[in-house]
Prior knowledge:
eight-stranded mixed beta sheet, globular, Rossmann fold
Amino acid sequence: MKLAALVAPALAMSAFSLSAVAADDAGMPPELAAKVAAIGRVIDPPKSAPLYAPLQEKEPYKGVKVARDVRYGPDERNLLDVFSPESAGGSRPVLMYVHGGGFVGGTKHAPGSPFYDNIHLWAVRHGMVGVNMTYRLAPAAKWPAGAEDVGRAVAWVHQDIAKYGGDPARIYIMGNSAGATHVADYLAQAAEHRLPATPVAGAILLSGIYDLTRFDPAGLKVYYGDNVEGYAGRSPIHGLLASRVPLIVSTAELDPVPFERQAHELRDALCKSARGCQSFLVLAKHNHLTQVQSINTADTTLTRHVLQFVK
């Protein structure tokens, strides 16, 4: 992954101080904690994925209906999966997930992998409807394609999710890494009236990039372009301060330092702004990837906070 190369030089820096308020590692098995710690502050999918994969459910998923590859926009990657209970019962909140991948890769679900079905199985089993989306990738699709696709997917959910038992008035969007950046960018541009705004009940931003001017441009140019001087105007942080969508801003304890810094600086900017402080988490003992790979296991480091936020 290109972002792994991007953040490697930063690991030699002195450790950026963590928040004094950290989420505890509820349910995280000690043997897994040791293995995650051994990986360190790097983005390493081949080492991270096998840790939680054996703990995940395998298809077919009991009691859960999955509608695969539902089209929400014109591009071949404008697809989403919808997870709902087999037995209908009321109108449920909707948890929509946007995957990462360094702006150039990633997918909502790879055959044979439990990720990221795990997020939406957890959602259904906790009273929600799950929506798992994918989006256009760089270099073919440049900024603001990701934010546009998130907006298209949210609009689809708002219009059609009632057919699956979801409540269009209670849409929560969660993104990790580049996915969190796209979610933040959508919220920012909607707040600034640069993209159509669809009502959203809340957003969970996991290890995203919010101020492009404070991040090494080497990993950003493929999506944001070569004009680094224009990065300030393309940074989501400004619009997030104007948005009124409730937020969880989160970083993993073992995130690469540049991602950790982005979360802390967004937290500080929000607290100093007119909208005020938002929920902020440091996910103890997790890294950039395991924070979402752990969802739907006994490890509730993240999910207990998401559940409280949604309900």
